[in-house]
Amino acid sequence: FHILLLNGPNLNLLGTREPEKYGHTTLAQIVSDLTQQADQHHVKLSHLQSNAEFQLIDRIHEARGNVDYIIINPAAFTHTSVALRDALLAVSIPFIEVHLTNVHAREPFRHHSYLSDVSAGVICGLGVDGYSWALQTAVKRLTHSN
Ligand code: DQA
């Protein structure tokens, strides 16, 4: 199986970006931990972080036919991007939406997501553990094919 991890804008700054909200773990550490977790399950993990909406969309298009599950932290695009929603729907690849912070406890403009209602599920507020739980569920669903 092949799982694609996508991270949206500003997440390249994890570790130094508002650490009181987002923690001290860098994106490189998250990706390395998740790759290790995927390896243990003999699952291939690919990763893209981009600050550009079109690059995330292009990567989703490329995933059609060769990626089985997507784990995505769309970052600020969560709250703005109909295009990202449409791309995910277009390729019909199930996905889990992840946020480090509890977006519902933050500014009202973060309470709405363009992706949540078409996602397999949403994890928010659990920090970096959210990625790990998402991977665990993706692997479980793929290997039990349900
Ligand atoms: C975020 C929450 C978003 O509201 C914000 O724009 C981000 C990160 C999170 O992981 O908590 O950039 O997706």
From TrEMBL:
Keywords: Amino-acid biosynthesis, Aromatic amino acid biosynthesis, Lyase
Pathway linked to the protein: Metabolic intermediate biosynthesis; chorismate biosynthesis; chorismate from D-erythrose 4-phosphate and phosphoenolpyruvate: step 3/7
Positions bearing the site annotation: Transition state stabilizer: R17
EC number: 4.2.1.10
InterPro entries attached to this UniProt entry: DHquinase_II, DHquinase_II_CS, DHquinase_II_sf
Pfam families hit by this protein: DHquinase_II (PF01220)
Active site residues of this protein: Y22 (proton acceptor), H99 (proton donor)
Binding site for substrate: N73, H79, D86, L100, T101, R110
PROSITE patterns with a match to the protein in the record: DEHYDROQUINASE_II
SUPFAM superfamilies named among the record's database cross-references: Type II 3-dehydroquinate dehydratase
Enzymatic class: lyase
Catalytic activity: 3-dehydroquinate = 3-dehydroshikimate + H2O
One of the GO biological process terms: chorismate biosynthetic process
GO molecular function: 3-dehydroquinate dehydratase activity
HAMAP family: AroQ (MF_00169)
UniProt similarity note: Belongs to the type-II 3-dehydroquinase family.
Subunit structure: Homododecamer.
Purpose of the protein: Catalyzes a trans-dehydration via an enolate intermediate.
Listed name of the protein: 3-dehydroquinate dehydratase
Gene for this chain: aroQ
